[in-house]
Each structure stands twice: as structure tokens, then as C-alpha cells.
Amino acid sequence: MEALAAVIAQRVGKHKQPPKLRAIKTPKPTVIDSITRDSILRRIRWLRDQYNLGCLIEQATFNTPGIDCLEDAELIALHREMEDARECCVEGVSIEEAGFIRNIAIQD
Q: How many angstroms separate the CA atoms of 11 and 76, rounded?
């Protein structure tokens, strides 16, 4: 039992490196107020969950921490795009066929 405890303590000790943290700044309101911004964020998350549109969020937030860090104009554009994609889902049109999926590869 003591040998097992020593092995576990040794393995736990190896992984005690401090996490790498970075500061994430939320954008300052420029176009919309905080209540409207919160409503848009809730609607985007609802659309993601109800219509499986997470790929559009991933595309819009490529190389950023997440939707909470998008500037107002970017957030509004994402919301509009997701509402249009929702209509495609309801009508049975693939979002890829409708042109919502873009190449987001980093260009050198």
C-alpha cells in the first residue's frame, strides 16, 4: 500500500506546473449596449444548440478566445449569419451549400 501511495505521489508531483494564463479583454461597447449584447450572445448560443451551428461560431472566432471577445460589429455580423443559416436549416438547405462555410486557414 505504501509503495502505491509513493507512486501516486510521484506522478502527482510531476504535474504540478502552474497553468499558463493570459489576460482576455472584453471589447468596450461601441455600437450596442451591454443588455443588447447579452441578448445577442444568448440568441447565438441558442441557435448553436438548437440548429447545430457551432461551426459558424468556430469560424467567426478562429484565433480568438470566444464569442465574448468579439467586437460589436463582428458579433452583429455573426448573429445575422446564424439567423440566415437557421432559415436554411428550416428550409432543408445545407449551410455549406448556402455558402456559410468559408476557408479560415491562416495565409502566409
A: 47
